[in-house]
Automatic annotation (TrEMBL):
It comes from Paracoccus niistensis. Residues 124-218 bind DNA. This is Response regulator transcription factor. The keyword Repeat does not apply. Residues 2-116 form the Response regulatory domain. The modification 4-aspartylphosphate is found at residue 51. It holds the Pfam family Trans_reg_C.
C-alpha cells in the first residue's frame, strides 16, 4: 500500500516508517497536519496512520474535515490517548481503527492488512488463482503447493492486483503505490517487476492491457 504516516515523534515515526517500508509499503512521513493535507491533495493514498496530538492541531479535527469533504481514505489512529472516551471519539469521527501507544509493530502490520482487505471488499485473506494460493495476511504465495519467494516490491505489486481483481491498474498508479515521494523510479521498473512475477508465478498471473495498464490474471 501507499501509506501516509502523520506522526511528530521522531523516534516512533522512524520505527513505524522503517517497519512498514520493510514490508514493501510505500511510506511518506510528515509531522504536521498542514503537511499531511498537502500530501493528500497531491497523491492518492491507500491508508493514513494518524497521530492525534500534532504541533499544529488535533488529529480528530483533521479527520472530521477529511470525512466532511467526502474523503474515504482508511485511517488508523495511533495515539497515547487510551481512555474509552478517546477511542469512541476517534471512531465516531471516522477512524477505521484505533491503536494506543506503545504498540507492537507486528500488531500494526496485522491491523493495516485487515483494514486494507475490508476496503477492497474481501475480508478473506485467502485467494485462489488457478494453481496459486495467496495468503494476504501471511504475505505468502504457493504455486502447486510449493512456496514462491517474492521480493518486497514484487509482493507489493502483486498484492495491489490481487486486492483489485478484474480492475485495470495503470503503470502510474502502481508506481505511486510502490514508491514514496522523491524516490527515483526507472522508466521500465514496473515492466521488470511484472516480468519477474510471470517467471515465478506463471505467465497468466498478470495480464497486460496495452496502453492501459495491468490486471490480475487467472493464474494459468
Amino acid at each position: 500500500m501507499r501509506i501516509l504516516l502523520v506522526e511528530d515523534d521522531t523516534i516512533l515515526g522512524a520505527a513505524v516508517r522503517d517497519h512498514i517500508a520493510a514490508e514493501g509499503h510505500s511510506t511518506d512521513w510528515v509531522g504536521r497536519l498542514d503537511r499531511a493535507a498537502e500530501h493528500l491533495d497531491a497523491a492518492p493514498y491507500d491508508l493514513v496512520l494518524l497521530d492525534l496530538m500534532l504541533p499544529d492541531g488535533r488529529g480528530i479535527a483533521f479527520l472530521r474535515e477529511l470525512r466532511r469533504r467526502g474523503d474515504v481514505t482508511p485511517v488508523i489512529i495511533l495515539t497515547a490517548l487510551d481512555q474509552i472516551s478517546d477511542r469512541i471519539e476517534g471512531l465516531n469521527a471516522g477512524a477505521d481503527d484505533y491503536l494506543t501507544k506503545p504498540f507492537d509493530l507486528a500488531e500494526l502490520s496485522a491491523r493495516l492488512a485487515a483494514v486494507a482487505r475490508r476496503y477492497c471488499g474481501n475480508p478473506n485473506p485467502l485467494v485462489n488463482l488457478g494453481d496459486l494460493q495467496v495468503d494476504l495476511a501471511a504475505r505468502r504465495v504457493l504455486r502447486g503447493g510449493g512456496r514462491v519467494d517474492l521480493t518486497q516490491r514484487e509482493w507489493a505489486l502483486f498484492e495491489a492486483l490481487v486486492q483489485r481483481p478484474g480492475q485495470v491498474i495503470s503503470k502510474a498508479q502502481l508506481e505511486d503505490r510502490l514508491y514514496a515521494f522523491g524516490a527515483e523510479v526507472e522508466s521500465n521498473t514496473i515492466e521488470v517487476h511484472v516480468s519477474r512475477l510471470r517467471k515465478k508465478l506463471g505467465a497468466g498471473a498478470v495480464e497486460t492491457l496495452r496502453g492501459m495498464g495491468y490486471r490480475l490474471g487467472d493464474g494459468r
